[in-house]
Design brief:
This protein has 329 residues and is of the alpha+beta class. The protein has helices at residues 51-62, 72-75, 144-147, 161-166, 178-200, 255-286, 291-319; strands at 2-5, 12-15, 21-23, 30-32, 42-44, 77-107, 118-137, 157-158, 170-171, 203-230, 233-240, 246-250, 323-324. Helix 6 packs antiparallel against helix 7. The structure holds zinc ion (ZN).
């Protein structure tokens, strides 16, 4: 553990390994490591949902999921709970790109007697503007479901350590520094602009970017890490403690639902496989040996395998532990 002196209150602050930003425990000042600069742009989302409220939100969400047991909210119990404030950099980026590329289009300009269609290369250029906030996870331990979650930060407040302590939460350290976060965010926006350009033209010959950072701030976001038990098994869940939204939860699936999935798989297999086999037999024994018979055989085989793949998807869903993810709206 390294130590730094807080530039605001002169208190000794311990710096956890790999941390790039620390918060003074005495005065809540956010200090950049190693420059020692004070960072004013450090915010927190206040915990609005208590453990009990988050639990209620979670269970009422789970019972609405397809195949989940109806009485789960009455019988499930929270076994384990942790409130973690995860750090994110939010990088506001205003960017534009100018690009030029090639596009292939069928050419119908030939005479009518000429049956063969030709393709012609068109040169095309365009311009895209974008303005977005990029979330950069600042800790390697941030759960993957949370990484994809759109975090609403409109109600952010200046970071105060008391808000973490009073809520009984734990604040995770910042492992990604500001410059690195900005670099990652710029890269992400450039990639998105290139993808946009590729939707317009098949091949990009030239692309110029103009990327400007409009704002950078650090925000700690509270997340309930919950584990609940239901009929001798336990399931994990994440609930956004600021908005009360369920980020992710695993949940049990009713036996009847599983059975119906298996039945569907069997029907697919029997009907699809049967038709595939019939087509295959027609190709083999009914049709005279020819290129058409081979084509019919291949078609039958493809049909059979395709239905097998469909059936497998039902089986996999039926036998795997169902996990649901609520997408941020
Ligand atoms: Zn201090």
């Amino acid at each position: 553990m390294k130590q730094v002196i807080c530039p605001h209150c002169k208190g000794k602050v311990e710096v956890p390994e790999l941390s790039n930003t620390v918060v003074c425990p005495y005065c809540s000042t956010t200090i950049q490591i190693p420059t020692g600069e004070i960072s004013k742009e450090h915010y927190i989302m206040r915990t609005q949902f208590t453990l009990q409220q988050s639990r209620d939100r979670l269970f009422s969400w789970v019972v609405k999921q397809l195949g989940a047991p109806k009485g789960l909210d009455q019988k499930a119990n929270i076994r384990d709970h942790r409130l973690v404030y995860w750090p994110f950099w939010v990088v506001g980026i205003k960017a534009s790109s100018d690009y030029a590329g090639n596009q292939w289009k069928p050419d119908f300009s030939g005479s009518h007697s000429e049956k063969t269609s030709r393709t012609k290369i068109f040169l095309k250029s365009g311009h895209i503007d974008t303005h977005r906030d990029v979330f950069v996870p600042a800790h390697p331990g941030i759960p993957k479901h949370l990484r994809r979650f759109v975090i609403p930060t409109r109600r952010k407040e200046f970071f105060k350590r008391e808000l973490v302590l009073d809520s009984g939460g734990f604040q995770e350290a910042v492992h990604v520094d500001r410059d690195k976060a900005v670099e990652l965010a710029k890269g992400e926006v450039k990639e998105a602009l290139l993808k946009e350009a590729l939707k317009d033209v098949g091949v990009v010959n030239r692309i110029d970017y103009d990327v400007n950072v409009s704002a950078v701030f650090l925000v700690h976001v509270p997340v309930w890490h919950l584990r609940y038990s239901y009929s001798f098994k336990s399931y994990e869940a994440l609930v956004d403690a600021a908005s009360g939204r369920v980020i992710f939860s695993r949940f049990p699936m009713k036996l009847a639902y599983r059975a119906s999935l298996i039945m569907n798989g069997v029907v697919q297999l029997v009907v699809g496989g049967g038709i595939g086999l019939a087509v295959l037999l027609v190709g083999l024994f009914v049709l005279p040996a020819s290129i058409y018979a081979v084509a019919v055989d291949l078609f039958g085989l493809a049909l059979g395998l395709g239905m097998l793949a469909f059936a497998m998807r039902y089986f996999i869903t039926a036998f795997s532990l169902k996990s649901g993810v609520e997408t941020a709206g």
